[in-house]
Design a protein that fits this description.
By secondary structure, the chain is an all-alpha fold. Helix 3 packs across helix 4.
Length: 126
């Protein structure tokens, strides 16, 4: 498997990814397994339907920056865009909003979670 040659933009992306993905690999893995074992996971033919992007995020979290593949870089880019867009207008009362973020590795209830107006890369900052 070819490794991705790191340019300045990839180093910045790596940093931003790890700022927004505030769950570690074990936390995300546990969350995804819990989600997959929810009520819909216990149908007559359970498949443990684990979120594909979440699984990809776990793989990136388990890697060193020097071991990234082009696919990992695309995963990081997509996750940074998605999490950033979801944080522009927070909906903490909306369980689906939180679940979507959690599936991407971002727990909006963690004290370290970026908040609009506090993080210049998230909407609401002046």
């Amino acid at each position: 498997m070819a490794h991705h040659r790191l340019g300045g933009d990839t180093v910045e992306l790596w940093t931003r990814f790890h700022e927004l993905v505030n769950m570690n690999g074990n936390e995300l893995r546990s969350w995804l397994l819990t989600e997959a074992s929810g009520p819909e996971g216990f149908t007559s033919a359970p498949s443990l339907d684990i979120d594909v992007t979440g699984r990809d995020v776990v793989h990136v979290l388990d890697k060193r920056r020097t071991d990234l593949t082009p696919e990992d870089v695309e995963t990081m880019r997509a996750v940074v865009e998605e999490v950033s867009s979801l944080l522009v207008e927070p909906h903490p009362e909306d369980e689906n909003w939180r679940r979507t973020l959690m599936n991407l590795g971002h727990d909006p209830l963690k004290p370290s979670s970026p908040r609009p107006g506090e993080d210049p890369d998230i909407g609401g900052a002046e």
